[in-house]
């Protein structure tokens, strides 16, 4: 799916701003033929939750309504007009002038619909009903329950089966774009690099409305100069003296696609792309033929007031903070991030592990890891969950959206699923097959593994290209005891290395809750000293393991979660606070990471 942009043949309207907003108390039905019965407003794009003084609204589980009015300039009415949501969390029913025009489930991927047939000459009313409910059939997974209050009204409850606040709303840009009737629908770009020859062949496939006489593709360099061009829906173009997209040293070409009728350009679209080669070989993760070392983070889209809403200044700041520390990568834990963030990473040379919304796929999820030691413990996840269809859908939509991004080097199919439990392999095998089949660039695939999934118990390691571990020795296990943690970390990594000598291993999570400003002469847990000691211990072990190809710590910044006795206004494992102030450990990590090359670490 193409990102919406203005081009010489396309106009773009942004519906950001104040929309009418109300929660649905389910007392009287809402009539979509009338304006919403409220004067309250909310800002779009953003989560609705933190824009209110009302706890009832903030914590509402169920349905909410949004409404805006817009005008379309007359000259545009002859064009094909498409309404596009960057996302709508988690399920949306969309009405234009009282008629339902589309429905979408899945809160972190875009969807769009043609609106010409529903438009009025003026004062178009766009109404959106959203649900923030999650259950055993959705991704993310939530425990859903219903009860009745004293008046017999339904009360819905979602207990998140994951460790982040269930922010919802129109969290990403809502836009209308125009195209001519004959239009380009999608562009697929697959570069193949010949490293020895300093050349690349770029395979482009253009999907269109089928009424062009000819499709012309030109590849422009960063200065806007045409380096090669050709004609055809499906073709391979050669680039000599190719400039590679490298980590933290991005070079972007542009594929300028023209749809031509009677010798005239009718539709045109420009897609930026990078040329780079990704391989997993001999226990290494290679970018452009050289071993890459991941330095960076698991993150969240999470900021004050915006909640999980699009916050571009913070995205820019986060990337700058990463680069300043010598970091080169992050994972979009635990859902696809905004398209704007992916485009920013392409430009900045930030390497991304792109994750689906598959989080919470373990019905016995909790912070008490001791329960797993119990002989009677049995996990019944794969008997209970009905997420396979939602999972297939998000894989399809994520790959469709992000397939051309140079920054995306690997897909994470799930976070901390019960891969140790009976039925896991049968669940995951078709999903991995599908991802591999769908990705035109054939990127490696992984899932991030939960602590209970060990070299002995994990049933799904054969499915992954890279072993990605989320580990909390010294925090959830043996809290405060870094000596034992060091041994456990080392023993486990050595075991993985021994059993899977050809698979690269990395940490995709490790960390310790740390209250900014809390200090301890004794290095007690929660202090800034403990956080630093914890990371020093971990780094020491990482450097001993030959196939260990990266460290992405948990988390870039403190973030909001649901309530719980383990959470004090959220998760405090950030190395930055939620306001992006550095904790003490940032100096240590900056020092370590600026000393580790992006390419060739441990081999030079
Ligand atoms: C995990 C989860 C992440 C949590 C983190 C924690 O394993 O993947 O979502 O926030 O642990 O801090 O407990």
How many DSSP helices?
A: 9
Number of domains: 2
Give the terminus-to-terminus CA distance: 41 Å
CATH superfamily descriptor of the largest domain: Glycosidases
- What Rg do the Cα atoms give? 25 Å
> Can you give the mean pLDDT?
97
CATH third-level topology of the largest domain: TIM Barrel
Low-confidence stretches: none
Ligand names = (2S,3S,4S,5R)-3,4,5-trihydroxy-6-oxo-oxane-2-carboxylic acid
Strand arrangement, largest sheet? 23-24-25-26-27-28-29-30
Overall 3D geometry?
globular
Q: Report the sheet-strand fraction.
A: 25-35%
Examine the secondary-structure arrangement and name the CATH architecture of the largest domain. Alpha-Beta Barrel
SSE class: alpha/beta
Helix content, binned percent: 10-25%
Largest sheet: 8 strands, parallel, barrel
Detail the topology: elements first, then pairings.
Layout: E1 12-14, E2 17-24, E3 41-44, H1 55-58, E4 63-70, E5 80-85, E6 91-96, E7 99-105, E8 111-114, E9 124-131, E10 142-148, E11 154-160, E12 174-179, E13 184-194, E14 199-208, E15 214-220, E16 226-231, E17 234-239, E18 253-261, E19 264-273, E20 278-281, E21 284-287, E22 290-291, E23 294-298, H2 312-324, E24 329-331, H3 339-348, E25 351-355, H4 381-384, H5 388-402, E26 408-415, H6 424-438, E27 445-449, E28 467-470, H7 482-499, E29 505-509, H8 528-542, E30 548-554, H9 585-594
Parallel strand pairs: 23-24, 23-30, 24-25, 25-26, 26-27, 27-28, 28-29, 29-30
Antiparallel strand pairs: 1-12, 2-3, 2-4, 4-9, 5-8, 5-12, 6-7, 6-9, 10-11, 13-14, 14-17, 15-16, 15-18, 18-19, 20-21, 21-22
The chain binds (2S,3S,4S,5R)-3,4,5-trihydroxy-6-oxo-oxane-2-carboxylic acid.
Residues 162-163, 334, 415-416, 470, 509, 554, 571, 573 line the site of (2S,3S,4S,5R)-3,4,5-trihydroxy-6-oxo-oxane-2-carboxylic acid.
């Amino acid at each position: 799916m193409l990102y919406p942009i203005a081009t010489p043949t396309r106009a773009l309207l942004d519906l950001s701003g104040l929309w009418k907003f109300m929660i649905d108390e389910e007392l009287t039905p809402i009539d979509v033929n009338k304006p919403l019965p409220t004067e309250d407003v909310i800002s779009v794009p953003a989560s609705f939750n933190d824009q209110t003084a009302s706890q009832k609204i903030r914590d509402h589980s169920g349905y909410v309504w949004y409404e805006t009015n817009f005008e379309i300039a007359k000259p545009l009415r002859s064009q094909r007009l498409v309404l596009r949501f960057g996302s709508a969390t988690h399920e949306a029913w969309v009405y234009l002038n009282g008629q339902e025009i589309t429905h979408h489930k899945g809160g972190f991927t875009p969807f769009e619909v043609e609106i010409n047939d529903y438009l009025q000459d003026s004062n178009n009313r766009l109404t959106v009903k959203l649900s923030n409910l999650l259950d055993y059939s959705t991704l993310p997974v939530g425990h859903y329950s219903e009860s009745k209050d004293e008046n017999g009204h339904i009360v819905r409850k979602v207990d998140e089966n994951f460790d982040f606040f269930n922010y919802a709303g129109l969290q990403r840009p809502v836009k209308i774009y125009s195209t001519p009737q004959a239009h380009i629908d999608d562009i697929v770009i697959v570069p193949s690099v010949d490293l020895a020859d300093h050349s690349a062949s770029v395979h482009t496939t253009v999907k269109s409305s089928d009424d062009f006489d000819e499709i012309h593709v030109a590849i422009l360099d960063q200065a806007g100069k045409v380096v090669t061009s050709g004609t055809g829906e499906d073709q391979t173009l050669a680039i000599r003296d190719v400039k590679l997209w490298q980590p933290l040293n991005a070079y972007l070409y542009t594929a300028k696609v023209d749809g031509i009728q009677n010798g005239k350009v009718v539709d045109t679209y420009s897609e930026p792309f990078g040329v780079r080669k990704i391989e997993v070989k001999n226990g290494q993760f290679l970018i452009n033929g050289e071993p890459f070392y991941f330095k960076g983070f698991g993150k969240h889209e999470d900021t004050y007031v915006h909640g999980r809403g699009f916050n571009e200044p913070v995205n820019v700041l986060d990337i700058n903070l990463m680069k300043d520390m010598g970091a080169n990568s992050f994972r979009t834990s635990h859902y696809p991030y905004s398209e704007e963030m992916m485009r920013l990473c392409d430009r900045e040379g930030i390497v991304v592990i792109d994750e689906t919304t598959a989080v919470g796929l373990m019905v016995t999820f909790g912070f008490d890891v001791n329960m797993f030691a119990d002989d009677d413990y049995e996990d019944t996840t794969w008997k209970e969950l009905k997420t396979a269809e939602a999972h297939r859908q998000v894989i399809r939509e994520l790959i469709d959206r992000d397939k051309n991004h140079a920054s995306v080097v690997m897909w994470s199919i799930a976070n901390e699923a019960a891969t140790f439990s009976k039925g896991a392999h049968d669940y995951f095998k078709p999903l991995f097959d599908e991802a591999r089949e769908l990705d035109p660039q054939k990127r490696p695939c992984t899932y991030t593994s939960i602590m209970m999934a060990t070299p002995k118990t994990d049933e799904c390691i054969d499915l992954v290209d890279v072993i990605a571990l989320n580990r909390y020795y010294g925090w959830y296990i043996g809290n405060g005891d870094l000596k034992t943690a060091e041994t456990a970390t080392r023993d486990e990594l050595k075991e993985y290395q021994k059993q899977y000598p050809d698979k690269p291993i990395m940490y995709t999570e490790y960390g310790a809750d740390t209250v900014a400003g809390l200090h301890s002469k004794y290095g007690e847990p929660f202090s800034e000293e403990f956080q630093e000691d914890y990371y020093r211990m971990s780094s020491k072990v990482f450097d001993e393991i030959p196939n260990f190809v990266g460290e992405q710590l948990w988390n870039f910044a403190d973030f909001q979660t649901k309530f719980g006795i383990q959470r004090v206004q959220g998760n405090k494992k950030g190395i930055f606070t939620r306001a992006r102030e550095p904790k003490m450990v940032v100096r240590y990590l900056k020092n370590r990471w600026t000393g580790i090359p992006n390419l060739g670490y441990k081999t030079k």
